[in-house]
Amino acid sequence: MDIRERLDAQPGGYVGIACSDRPRYTAHEMCWDHLKLPPGTAFSRIPGLSVAANYNIACRKALDGEAQWLWLMDDDHVYPPDILVSLLERDVDIVTPLYLRRAAPFLPVLHGDESREYTRYNFQYLKGRRGLINVTADGTLPTGGMLIRRHVLEAMTDPWFETGQIDPEYGSWDIYFTEKARKAGFKLFVDTDNPMGHIVPLAVWPVRSEDGSWQFDIREAY
To answer: Which residue in 121, 123, 197, 204 has its CB near the most CB atoms, within 10 A?
Structure first.
């Protein structure tokens, strides 16, 4: 099927973009401009300092209408135009594209085991794997790019996303939400065939070697 037929085959939903008072990156806005949406899909940018609160607003907006799914997006990602329809075609409870952390060593944003550290689903674990990876047993997904079916939201209670439940110093709304979803009996997947980029503040420095030659070094900006 071509992209139009693929989109027409999917139900309408709701896209909620969490942002501050304005979108941070032009690159994300350019991706959003080219994103392909199924007919009947609504969307809004949801500003605010609390990502968990932004996500909860998106959940309520989705349930207030006829949306059959919710796609949560942050304003620091880049992605191909067909990523949403590709995720919808997976037809699972909850799925998130594969992407990396914004800080070195840029590991996949997938927590695992009871320590909730980035140790279970590392690059070695992903080697040779394709398609969906079921992390329901012991993994937690990031919420940027997360596609959630309506029946999941209806079965879980408001607020869906909460801060301070895992660590009082950090939000951890993503970990807490996916742990609650797992306990409610829903399946969690990461899609390795549909990755997306995570925009990172980096600086390019000129570096002089001992022999007097010059090269560049890429460093985190802060």
So the answer is: 121
CA distance 112 to 90: 22
90 CB-contact burial (10 Å; exposed 0-12 / middle 13-18 / buried 19+): middle
pLDDT, tens digit (0-9, with 9 covering 90-100), for 106-143: 889 987 755 556 567 888 889 999 999 999 988 888 99
100 DSSP 8-state letter: B
User: Could you give the CA distance from residue 3 to residue 157 in angstroms, rounded to a whole number?
Assistant: 35
Spatial separation of the C-alpha atoms in residues 87 and 79, rounded to whole Å = 12
The H or E element containing residue 206 is strand 202-208
* Pairing mode, strands 69-74 and 147-149: antiparallel
Tell the residue number behind the tokens 């209670």, with chain if given: 157
Rounded to whole angstroms, the Cα distance separating 73 from 89 reads: 18
Question: What integer is the mean pLDDT of 56-83?
Answer: 96
The answer to whether residues 147 and 91 touch, using CB atoms and an 8 Å cutoff, is no
Residues 135, 221: Cα–Cα separation, whole Å: 33
Query: Per the structure block, which two tokens stand in for 29?
Result: 């806005």
pTM of this structure: 0.91
Q: Is the pLDDT of residue 26 over 60?
A: yes
